[in-house]
Amino acid sequence: MLITTTDTVEGRRVVAYLGIVAADVVMGSNAIRDFFASVRDWVGGRAGGYEKVLADARREALDELAARAAKLGADAVIGVDVEYQSVGGTMLMVAANGTAVKLG
Known about the structure:
With 104 residues, the chain is an alpha+beta fold. The chain has two helices and four strands, in the order E-E-H-H-E-E. Strand 3 and strand 4 form a beta hairpin.
């Protein structure tokens, strides 16, 4: 399944728009990771634990988006938008949406 943020696929023609597909993933963090992230805020550096949670959540959201598009018979999802939001202070939500299409 091709997933792209663009509204076209170079060298391919969109022959059918199958609808909007969306996927939301909510993942929690933990107290230990929160503690070390706050320490890094004071001393600088990257919060590797949070970066991993963020990358995992994004991957899961895009995988779910592809699965939902496949159920519609799509070849690709175009115009994909990925958004991030903190939920309840300890949860991370990643929302992905786009348009499922058939390519010619």
